[in-house]
Amino acid sequence: MAAIDPIVLVVTGHVTRDVVPALCTELETLLNGPRGTALDPAAPVECDVGGVDRADLVLVEAVARLALVARRAGRQLRLRRVGPELQGLLDLVGLADVVALEGPVSPRESPPEAARAGRTAGTSAPRPGNSASPRSPRPGHR
Questions:
Q1: Contact between residue 63 and residue 90 where contact means Cβ atoms under 8 Å apart
Q2: What's the Rg (C-alpha) of the chain?
Q3: Does the pTM of the predicted model rise above 0.90?
Q4: Cα angle vertex 105, ends 99, 107, to 5°?
Q5: Model confidence over 42-91: pLDDT tens digits?
Q6: Do residues 68 and 89 make contact, with C-beta atoms less than 8 angstroms apart?
Q7: Given the DSSP bridges, would you call strands 100-101 and 77-80 parallel, antiparallel or unpaired?
Q8: 90 within 8 A of 59, measured Cβ to Cβ
Q9: Cα(99)–Cα(40) distance, rounded to whole angstroms?
Q10: CA-CA distance, 90 to 55, in Å (whole number)?
């Protein structure tokens, strides 16, 4: 049985709200295939975000809208080369369960370690209002 080539959308640079509709249109074009012919419905839909400059809420919005385009075509969006910052944001807003995530491939750490690092990044410092914070008491407490 022959392997089915995935439908791949590559997102690079700085993602702004202005480019999100163009990304969705590009994915719709890829899903419709060349000259409007429908592609194999079993072909996976992948979005490579490894070249994105910064993970922020605009990128999360783009991922959500791309996932919706894929879902309307009866498919699930799978993200490739997801960095720990984007992984954390997707977890925070609940989109990690909507899209399939493939973490960054690094020769120094295995994918489970990369995913764990993404979930714990930035949590070692005391948080405001946290009882572990020695800096100042919580308001109303002495």
A1: yes
A2: 19
A3: no
A4: 160
A5: 788 999 999 999 999 999 999 999 999 999 999 999 999 999 999 999 99
A6: no
A7: parallel
A8: no
A9: 20
A10: 10
- Three-class SS state of 12: strand
Residue 85 near residue 58 (C-beta atoms within 8 A)? no
Q: Tell me which DSSP letter residue 104 carries.
A: -
Phi, psi of 85 (to 5 degrees): -65, -45
Question: Amino acid identity of 69?
Answer: V
Token pair for 23: 């990304």
Give the residues across from 8 on adjacent strands. 46
Phi-psi group of 96: left, alpha or beta (phi > 0 → left; psi -120 to 50 → alpha; rest → beta): alpha
Which alpha helices (H) appear in the chain, and where do they start and end?
20-32, 57-72, 84-93, 111-120
133: which 2 tokens? 């914070």
Query: CA 54, CA 14: separation in Å to the nearest integer?
Result: 6
* Identity of residue 55: A
Query: Hey, what amino acid is at 33?
Result: G
Q: Strand, coil or helix: what is 127? A: coil
**Degrees, nearest 5: CA angle 10-29-44:** 60
Pair of tokens at residue 9: 């959308």
